[in-house]
Each structure stands twice: as structure tokens, then as C-alpha cells.
Design goal:
5-stranded parallel beta sheet; 7 strands; 36% helix
């Protein structure tokens, strides 16, 4: 679970043409070896499950407050379940290893279970235990979220975590999550462990052309990134984060423009066994701007407004765009 789970405009921006050229010229690093885990469950889930990226409502892991109790988690899941049947989580710390069980009980069909700190052996143990306890719902582990991009851990620590899970659960699909640009860098891209599917973050809002391009460009950008990653690496692609915030209105964002993005993306990138996207993110997080210290001052406010539901649990218009 990320205090700010999105790359914040420091790196990884690609003009449209440069992006396509970089992708087309990059060697296929991530599928150099065949995967050992059976990816059938992942491919089936991509085609049939509606995923949402989920951080517990109102929980700031850096604030020193008590972690959410199970009643709070159940309440969140009850709000999400009418629209989604899959979860992508960020952490197994602070009691969040309970989410697979609670998700199954709430009727969710699939969980990509996140590990915020792959170098933390205790969190990794919690994830392995949760996956073993709920094999019917946990389809994969996502070891880390933008940790290489932000320097929270290094490639050696990430590879060690992958190796441990491969030894203990060779049947379990594994991935990690980074901004799409990191996969394109020759050094850091080559250092990524072998994955069973890709879980990139693809944020049009971080691209240098975003403010001047027509709205349709953002959706086209996400679609082309997905298509080229899929072709280049011959792996399924599940976009973990994308979208538009619904505010602040002073910056030209609105709940209606957020809904229009998701409606257009649903039409442009329908799910298949090879690619899909997760809806990002479940709830608004009013605490995030205070944590976004590495973002330009004028862009911090938008970090509070990524949710498909408001912080009080009420639905925004974008939620109506989730297919039934």
C-alpha cells in the first residue's frame, strides 16, 4: 500500500514518438526464459475479472495510526464488490495479509496480493502464508511497487525475494510493479527478475504532452503502451495504475472528465487473455498530498482525488463505467 503509489513527474516521461521507438528497439529482456508458473489462471482472470487497485480507506501507513481492523476492511470490500470481483493490493503488513480471506468471503474471485517491501522477510512470510491459506483466490504475488524507481530497494533484494518465492511456491505466478518507462531502460529493465506477467503503471498525466493534448490522446497512449509491451515481451499485461484524478477543479480536472477517461479506455482496450487494466484506485486519499513531498507543489493536491469512490464511500460517476 503506497503512501503515494504513483510516479510523481520526476522521471520516466516519454514523448509519444520516442516511446514507440524505444519499445521497438529494446531487446526482449523479460521473457528470455520460459516461465515456470502456470499462467493459465492469470490469463483467465485478465479476460474475465474486473480488478481494482485497493488501499484501505483513510489508512495512512506513515501516520502512526492503528491499522484498519477487519470490520473496516469488510466495509470497504462491501462497497467495492458490486462493481469489482478482483483486487490488486499493495502490502501484507499492518494486518493486510487478512485481505485474501476477507475478499473470498465477500465474493471476490481473484487477488493479486502485494508485498510493499520485498526485502522484509516478515512481510514476505505473511504473503506466502496468505497465498497458501487462500489458494482459490490468490492468483499471484506482486513483489514490490515502484521500489526500484524510487530507490526503496535494489534489484538484488527484489531478485532474492523472487528466488525465495520460486523455491517455496513454484506454482505461484509472480510479478512486480514499476512505471512502464523502467522496463524500457537498458540497465534497470535488464535487472528485473523474470516475471510471469507484467504489472506496469501507465500514467498519461506524467507525460510532457499531457496538458496540451486532446483527451483522446491519453487513452490512445495507454492502449499503445499495452500493445507494445505485450508484443515485445510476450507476456500478459495487466495495467495496475492508470486513469485521471477527479480534482482539483482549479487544474482542470473533474469527476466527469475522470468518468470519460474510463469509459473511453473500456471501449479502446477491452480485456483479453493477453491484456487488461485495473481500475485505479478504489478510494480517494485526502492524506496523500502531505506525503507527496517529492512532487512539485502545484501537483500535490491531485494525489487526493484518484479514487472511484470518495473518502466517505460514496460513488463518483466513473464507477458507473465499470461493466456489469
Amino acid at each position: 500500500m503506497a503512501p503515494v503509489s504513483r510516479p510523481l513527474d520526476r522521471m520516466g516521461t516519454f514523448p509519444m514518438l520516442s516511446l514507440w521507438m524505444s519499445l521497438l528497439s529494446l531487446a526482449a529482456l523479460l521473457h528470455a526464459e520460459p516461465t515456470r508458473a502456470d499462467a493459465e489462471r492469470v490469463r483467465s482472470a485478465l479476460a474475465s475479472v474486473h480488478f481494482v487497485a485497493y488501499t484501505p480507506r483513510g489508512f495512512d501507513p506513515d501516520a502512526g495510526a492503528p491499522p484498519p481492523d477487519r470490520a473496516a476492511l469488510r466495509a470497504d470490500l462491501a462497497l467495492l464488490r458490486p462493481y469489482f470481483d478482483g483486487l490488486i493490493t499493495y502490502s501484507c503488513a499492518n494486518g493486510l495479509d487478512a485481505l485474501p480471506k476477507l475478499a473470498r468471503e465477500a465474493g471476490f474471485r481473484a487477488v493479486v496480493l502485494g508485498v510493499w517491501s520485498p526485502s522484509d522477510s516478515q512481510e514476505l512470510e505473511l504473503a506466502l502464508a496468505a497465498a497458501s491459506a487462500e489458494p482459490g483466490v490468490v492468483i499471484a504475488l506482486a513483489l514490490g511497487n515502484e521500489g526500484l524507481f524510487f530507490g526503496r530497494y535494489d534489484a538484488r533484494a527484489l531478485s532474492a525475494a523472487f528466488a525465495r518465492v520460486r523455491r517455496e511456491r513454484p506454482d505461484l505466478a509472480l510479478t512486480t510493479s514499476e512505471p512502464f518507462s523502467l522496463y524500457l531502460e537498458s540497465a534497470r529493465g535488464a535487472a528485473l527478475p523474470r516475471q510471469d506477467f507484467l504489472l506496469p503503471n501507465v500514467h498519461p498525466i506524467d507525460q510532457p504532452w499531457f496538458g496540451s493534448a486532446p483527451p483522446a490522446t491519453s487513452v490512445e497512449f495507454v492502449s499503445k503502451v499495452v500493445a507494445l509491451l505485450e508484443e515485445r515481451f510476450a507476456l500478459p499485461v495487466l495495467v495496475k495504475e492508470t486513469g485521471l484524478p477527479s480534482g482539483p477543479t482549479s487544474d482542470g480536472f473533474s469527476e466527469s472528465s475522470q468518468a470519460e477517461f474510463w469509459s473511453a479506455l473500456e471501449r479502446r482496450l477491452p480485456p483479453t487473455r493477453s491484456h487488461a487494466f485495473s481500475w485505479f484506485e478504489a478510494f480517494d486519499s485526502p492524506w496523500k498530498p502531505a506525503r507527496a513531498r517529492d512532487a512539485p507543489l502545484g501537483k500535490r493536491a491531485r494525489e487526493a482525488h484518484w479514487g472511484l469512490l470518495r473518502s466517505d464511500g460514496s460513488a463518483k460517476p466513473a464507477l458507473a463505467e465499470v461493466p456489469k
